[in-house]
Structures are given as structure tokens and as C-alpha cells.
Specification:
Elements lengths: L1 H4 L20 E4 L4 E4 L2 H8 L5 E2 L3 H4 L19 H12 L2 H5 L2 H13 L5 E3 H6 L1 H11 L6 H14 L11 H29 L5 H7 L1 E2 L2 E2 L2 H32 L1 H9 L4 H11 L5 E6 L3 E3 L2 E3 L4 E5 H4 L34 H18 L2 E4 L6 E2 L8 E3 L1 E5 L1
Parallel strand pairs: 2-10
Antiparallel strand pairs: 1-2, 3-7, 4-14, 5-6, 7-10, 8-9, 11-14, 12-13
Helix pairs in contact: 4-11, 6-8, 6-16, 8-12, 9-10, 10-11, 10-12, 12-14, 12-16, 14-16
Bound molecules: protoporphyrin IX containing FE.
Length: 397
């Protein structure tokens, strides 16, 4: 896959996708004013120690980020606030709620395939994008038909998303964040209408559960519900879209593994896990040092911003044998695609379920699924993500 990555718009920072290894596991980068963490054990150290490595990053270090409203945003919180909010949210977003979605995920996938009037289609447009979007809209109880509206806000916001930096000498980052914030506001206004409606008319949906969830007598404010719902809408669909597309891309590049998965559906789940390792949809996570630390033999002072490259750690040969090979037989596969520690992806079980159900159905419904190499796939341009945003396929039923 390495020879073609340049054609596919792979971000220049993602050197590990070109078969290159980082020079060191921990490196300061003057251009971004941040420390980049590439090594697996170093990433695990950071992610497992929230007292030393804080998630309160954006407000403290990212110029322009003071324009965001972080109320209710789990990703920016440390204990004890993080534990309290995550417990509240987990009461609404339960494993049962997720498991119960399986039949509806299958139904939506089948309907999307039924609606195809050709066997040459873009997997992202036709299935990988609408599926998670419909699933989240159903969870929230918002109209499925609004998905194009939401896609537009998400696309606009993604188009603006460049490399986040700890310095902003030309004001470019502050301007870009202002534009993303405007898209965010449209989404938040939309969600606020639905939240206000659920307070008056409770329904059997996640927004109602979030509005009603209680820990120690405390409830979420409207603003917190809206900000959290907005995070779910965004975090939950873009990444899951990429997971599906990336898995198809990997299986196409390794036809013998595609044949194994076709022959034995028990291999669908490991194929999804290996895809999370090999092309990790969320490429990095941010942290800040609360104290002076020594990491990977390098001294990092306190109050520094760190970008932990989950995608690079997932290719660290110290942890994964032959890391540049997509291999569905890896056991165990301790990838960091959903991170680790207290911020471990809250939607991981849902993303895995969607990936597993959709891939199985695609294999059932199509005797052949090949990437159309005359129309190259395109990766999302933001360095925070690794994944295809278009994936033209040639299929045979
Ligand atoms: C956090 C990846 C799907 C909701 C995270 C983190 C990662 C991640 C790496 C942790 C970042 C950190 O350590 O700072 C992914 C990937 C997905 C996916 C690769 C799909 C393949 C979803 C879905 C939802 C979701 C479907 C919900 C519907 C969240 C939330 C957090 C989170 C709420 C914040 C958790 C916290 O800070 O405690 N995700 N995610 N994600 N994810 Fe996901």
C-alpha cells in the first residue's frame, strides 16, 4: 500500500503510512511548538497517567481555542470532573442501548445497499457515511432526513481543520477556529431545539436520557447536553465512516485476507481490529504535562503540549511484529485506536458493532468488492484523522 499512498492524499505528517519510522519515540517540533509522541510504550505511559498528563489542553495551550465552549466536553476534562461527567453520560449511553441497535444497523445497511442502482459506487457516499449518521440520529431521536444538513456543517468544519499548534504567529489558527466555531454553532442551535423539546416532551431516546441522567442529585445543563451531543455527532460519525472505508481498503490490498474473511465470518471482528491499528481513524490525542517528566529518555518540562500519535504507536515495531503488514491473525492486538485509560473511546462498542455488522452484510450481498483503481481513493486532509473520504468500488452481486 505504501507505493500508492502519495497518490491518495495521505497527510505528509503521517510518515508511518509511507513505511518510514520516526527518528525518536519522543520529539520536540519547533513548527508546532509541541512534543510529538510516536512510540507505543511512551504513548501508553502518557494515556495511563491523567494526574501527570492532563486533558485540559485546548484552553491552556491552543491559541484561538478560547472561542470554543468546552462545557460538557469530556475530552478536555481531568478527574474528578471527568469521572463525574462520564458517569452521568454512561448512565444514558449504556451497553444495552448499544447492543439493542444491532437489528436496526443491519436494516439500515441493507436498505442502503437496496437503494444502489449501480455496482460501481463510492462506498463512503453510499454506505460508510450515511450508516453511522442514521444510527446516531436514531439514537438521539432526530430526523434522519436532516443528515445532509449535518454533513454540510461537519464537512465545512473538517475542511477548516489543519494541524493544531501550540503557537499561532500569523493568526491563521485563530481564524480557522473561528470558522469551525461558526459551523459548530449551527449544529448546537439545531441540537438545542431538540433538547428543549425533550425537556417538555420526554421520548425513548438518548437525548431524553441525557436530559434526565442524574449523579448525586446533579443533572446535565442544556448547554452540557448540547455540547456533549455535538461531540457525539461529530466524533461518532466521521471516525466510524473511516473505519468502514479503511477496512475495505485494507482487505482490497490483501486479497488473501479478504478471502479468509469471506470464508469465515468469525474473522470479521479481528479484521476490524486490525484496521483500527493499521489505519487508525483518530490519528492522535492531545495531552499536557502537569509536572517535569522523563519520557522515552527525553526530559519534557511541565506545562508543555503533547500530541500522542496513536496511529504511529500502532506501527511501533517494539510492540507489533511486522507492523506495516495488515494481518487479521494478530492475537492479541493491543492497538491504541480507541486510546487507553480513562478517556478510552466511549463509543468504541458502537463503532465496533457498526463495523462488524456492515462488513458482514457487504460480504453477504456482494460476491466481489474491489477498489476501483482507475479512480483513486482520497484520504481526509486533516492530520488528526487517517481515513478514506472517498472510496470508489467495483462490486459484483
Ligand atoms: C474518545 C476514537 C467512534 C464517542 C475517543 C478517543 C479515541 C476515539 C482515540 C480518545 C482520545 C483521547 O484519549 O483523548 C474513535 C474511533 C471511532 C470512534 C477510532 C470509530 C472507529 C466513536 C463513536 C462515539 C464516540 C461512535 C459515540 C457515538 C467518543 C467520546 C469520547 C471518545 C464521547 C470522549 C471520551 C472521554 O474523553 O472520556 N474516541 N472513536 N467515538 N469517543 Fe470515540
Amino acid at each position: 500500500m505504501n507505493a500508492t499512498t502519495d497518490l491518495w492524499n495521505v497527510h505528509p505528517r503521517h510518515r508511518w503510512l509511507r513505511g518510514e519510522r520516526p527518528n525518536q519515540p519522543v520529539e520536540f517540533d519547533d513548527e508546532t511548538g509541541m512534543w510529538h509522541i510516536y512510540g507505543y510504550p511512551e504513548a501508553v505511559t502518557v494515556l495511563s497517567d491523567p494526574a501527570t498528563y492532563s486533558n485540559d489542553v485546548a484552553r491552556r495551550f491552543v491559541p484561538g481555542a478560547d472561542q470554543w465552549d468546552f462545557d460538557g466536553n469530556l475530552t478536555q476534562l481531568d478527574p474528578p470532573e471527568h469521572r463525574k461527567l462520564r458517569t452521568l453520560i454512561s448512565r444514558a449511553f449504556t451497553p444495552k442501548m448499544v447492543a439493542d441497535l444491532e437489528p436496526s444497523i443491519a436494516k439500515v445497511t441493507n436498505t442502503l445497499i437496496d437503494e444502489l442502482d449501480t455496482d460501481e459506487f463510492d462506498l463512503v457516499d453510499a454506505i460508510a457515511y450515511p450508516l453511522p449518521m442514521i444510527v446516531i440520529a436514531d439514537l438521539f431521536g432526530t430526523p434522519r432526513e436532516d443528515r445532509d444538513l449535518i454533513k454540510q456543517w461537519a464537512d465545512d468544519s473538517l475542511a477548516e481543520r489543519g494541524q493544531i499548534k501550540a503557537k499561532d504567529e500569523d493568526g491563521e489558527q485563530t481564524r480557522s477556529i473561528a470558522s469551525q466555531r461558526d459551523d459548530q454553532r449551527k449544529m448546537n442551535d439545531y441540537l438545542l431545539e431538540h433538547v428543549a423539546n425533550r425537556r417538555k416532551h420526554p421520548k425513548d431516546d438518548l437525548l431524553t436520557s441525557l436530559v434526565q441522567a442524574e449523579v448525586d442529585g446533579d443533572r446535565l445543563s442544556d448547554n452540557q447536553v448540547v455540547n456533549f451531543a455535538s461531540l457525539l455527532f461529530f466524533a461518532g460519525h466521521v471516525t466510524t465512516t473511516m473505519l468502514l472505508g479503511n477496512t475495505l481498503l485494507c482487505l482490497d490490498a490483501y486479497p488473501e485476507q479478504m478471502a479468509r474473511v469471506r470464508a469465515d465470518r468469525a474473522l470479521v471482528a479481528p479484521a476490524i481490529e486490525e484496521s483500527l491499528r493499521y489505519l487508525s481513524p483518530l490519528a492522535s490525542a492531545y495531552r499536557a504535562t502537569n509536572v517535569d517528566v522523563e519520557l522515552g529518555g527525553t526530559r519534557i518540562p511541565k506545562d508543555q503540549m503533547l500530541e500522542v500519535w496513536l496511529a504511529a504507536a500502532n506501527r511501533d515495531p517494539r510492540r507489533f511484529t511486522d507492523p506495516d503488514t495488515y494481518d487479521i491473525s494478530r492475537t492479541p492486538n493491543p492497538h491504541l485506536g480507541f486510546s487507553q485509560g480513562i478517556h478510552f473511546c466511549l463509543g468504541g462498542p458502537l463503532a465496533r458493532l457498526e463495523g462488524r455488522v456492515a462488513l458482514s452484510i457487504l460480504l453477504d450481498r456482494f460476491a466481489e468488492l474491489r477498489v476501483d483503481h482507475d479512480r483513486a481513493p482520497e484520504f481526509l486532509t486533516s492530520p488528526d484523522f487517517t481515513g478514506v473520504w472517498t472510496l470508489p468500488l467495483r462490486a459484483r452481486r
